[in-house]
Model the fold of this input.
Amino acid sequence: MASVILVRCVRGARAVYHPALCLRQGGGGGVRPAAAAAATTSLLARRDFWQQRLVQAPGNAQCVQWRRFSDLPPLTPESIQERVFHVLKLYDKINPEKLQVTSHFMKDLGLDSLDQVEIVMAMEDEFGFEIPDVEAEKLMCPQDIVKYVAEKKDIL
Amino acid sequence: MASTAATRTASGAFKAVKPLISRDIDEAKRRVRELYRAWYREVPNTVAVFQLDITTGQGRDKVREMFNKNKHVTDPRIIDMLVIKGKMELQETIEVWKQRTHIMRYFHETETPRPTDFLSKFYYGHDP
Done:
């Protein structure tokens, strides 16, 4: 997750940096909600959005607040699944071709119980919250992990 | 002794023994997993604090090897005892009561492997 975000940030910063057009007048509260909406769109759309805002800024009294406070993209089941697969593909004991949503760690992928513990720990590091062992021992396929994380983060 | 054991298991009545910490095998396995998690998280700190010449991956493989050595154990009391010993080792490693040599003893770098089959033992010497 961290590596993906860093790459995006570096690519985005070069496109957005226009100090000459930044007008710091007043609160600038009008741009903040727009920034939050922009965070969910793709990188290219975001860059175009900011360039549009900067073009409109000189005629507009509203200040262009391009200081974006870091916020994670909102969690959806698809994004959770993508992140889970990303982490699992990085694990060297798993064959990436054989990996499916419902592939059982022990029966299909031939992993150990200690391997499963390592996978759960990698998920803890990825999503940033502790998974107690009572519930961790039940997470036996990627589908279970996605459902568990969605449940814990209160997503439908 | 074997016949009484056979009659006991045939009748289905197992001798009830007082558990050490965990009441059944699942609880004992849970403790093993907790210990493995603690060791897994501790290895990078150990490599940094003791300035070991191994990589974190090698350290974690060694932890896995030590755990796999006792994979065959089924008695919850023995598992509990091994977990207690593992926790003691972990505490000594975390608190830096050990030294680099004690950690590297797990790796057996300078030991020559002992002979296992008959002919090697015979060439090695007559001591059994």
